[in-house]
Each structure stands twice: as C-alpha cells, then as structure tokens.
Specification:
This protein has a four-stranded antiparallel beta sheet, with no helix packed on it. A four-stranded antiparallel beta sheet has the order 8-9-10-11. The protein is built from three helices and 17 strands. The chain is globular. It is mainly beta. It has a domain of 141 residues: YVTN repeat-like/Quinoprotein amine dehydrogenase (Methylamine Dehydrogenase, Chain H), CATH 2.130.10.10. 9% of the residues lie in helices and 42% in strands. It holds the Pfam family Beta-prop_KIB1-4.
Length: 245
C-alpha cells in the first residue's frame, strides 16, 4: 500500500467472520480484520489480523500514511502502513488524566480521551523532528509531542476545539465558535501567531431542516493552501458544517 499524505479510513472488513472474533470460550477477541480505504485511488485494501502484535490497540487518527493508536495502557504510538513500523511516543502525563488515576483512565476513558490526532509529516525511526498533535479530554484541549520530547499542553489555548490541522510546525485549530487560531510550535513556549473570527450568517432554512433538538452540529476545517514567511502569513481556510441526527 502506498504511503499517502491523505488520511486513510478504517472500515469493517467484508471478510470478517463471527468465528474470527471468538476465542475458545466464545468471548475473547482473536482476529480483527479491517479494510483500509484509500481516498486517493478510491480502493479498499483488506488487512487481516490488523492488530496481531499490538493487542488492545485503539485507533484515534490517520495522518500522513500512518495510523495513530493507543496501546492497552493508553500510551500513544504510530503505525506506518507502508512498512508496518511502529514508532512510540511518551505516555500522557498525570496532569492530562487528572483527577483520574492511571488505572481508572485506562479502564474507562482510554477510547474517549483523544478526539483527534494529526502529524506534521510522515515520520521515520531516525527522524526526531516530527510532531504529533492532539485534541484531548472532555474540554477539548490542545497538546503536542515530538518523539524525543514530552507532552506539552498549549495552556494559552482557552477554547473548546473542534478540529486541528498541523502544517509543518504550525498548528491550526478550529474553535467551537468558528474562530481559527494558528500556533507556532517551534517556539520554546508555543505562541499564537494568528487569530481569525469569520463572519457566519444565520441560515434560517438550515435551522428549519436541522432543528437543534434533533441534530448535533460539527465543524471541520481544511487548509487549502498557504504561504509562510518570517513576517507574514497568508492562508485560505474552508469550514464545513456537518449535521448529525
């Protein structure tokens, strides 16, 4: 499978059988098959026994040809689909998990903790300059980590965030109110270098078709192109509103 900059989608396998999912006592998961959908070539690739050597893994993102996963102790790592190489990151610090103990966090919140995870580029084992950024926790905070570093919460990011895009070392974050912030992660202390509050007109027809008591709304962001310089930044953003029943 080619390594793509576009994300992959993980789908249930068409070849999965009930017997694959049952152990001798009928309760333990043995084989987990998945289909990997490539957006670029519009094909599904079957992957049998996907988590053979990483039992209990939980996928929290897909970025630059990699899957971002948590192991059974909630420690993040990435799996390169082109080579099946695993690259591990430091565990989340206790401050991220507060007020839960590590045991309670793993048992009850591991699969809900990371809302989104993105990389700034396709990593390699000998490269320590790539970055993994996440939206995490019930308050949708921002944090990031490089392979050779520790996890850093962006403490000045005070909003609840819907989406993130990591372009080079610039983290673009879409907040709940539709505003966009850009953070420079190269600084010793992450620095906000851009804040944009778009004008969003109320659509009465949309309100009628998707009433708030029946639908939830989710905003997504796409960075279509940009130009970075030492003293300026010029970029184009697209926002997409999705209504979920």
């Amino acid at each position: 499978m080619a390594c793509l900059s576009l994300p992959y989608a993980i789908l249930p396998s068409l070849q999965q059988t009930h017997s694959d999912l049952q152990g001798e006592d009928g309760g333990d998961t043995i084989l987990i098959h998945r289909s990997i959908f490539s957006v670029l070539d519009k094909k599904c690739y079957e992957w049998k026994n996907m988590f053979k050597n990483i039992a209990g893994a939980w996928c929290v993102g897909s970025s630059h040809g990699c899957l971002v996963l948590l192991d059974n102790k909630a420690t993040p790592f990435i799996l390169k689909l082109s080579s099946l190489v695993c690259i591990h990151f430091p565990p989340f610090p206790p401050a991220f998990l507060h007020p839960l103990s590590e045991t309670n966090f793993v048992n009850y919140l591991r699969k809900l903790f990371v809302i989104k995870a993105v990389l700034n580029r396709s990593p390699s084992p000998n490269d320590s300059n790539y970055i993994l950024a996440i939206i995490y926790g019930c308050h949708c905070k921002l944090a990031f980590c490089s392979k050779s570093s520790t996890w850093v919460e962006i403490s000045d990011a005070k909003r609840c965030y819907y989406d993130i895009v990591l372009n080079n070392n610039y983290l673009h974050a879409l907040a709940q109110d539709g505003s966009i912030e850009v953070w420079d992660l190269c600084e010793e202390v992450p620095r906000k270098i851009l804040y944009v509050k778009p004008t969003m007109e109320k659509n009465e027809q949309e309100e009628k078709e998707f009433p708030r008591d029946l639908f939830s709304t989710q905003l997504y962001m796409m960075l279509s192109g940009g130009e970075m310089g030492k003293h300026y930044m010029k970029e184009t953003f697209y926002l997409k509103k999705i209504h979920n029943p």
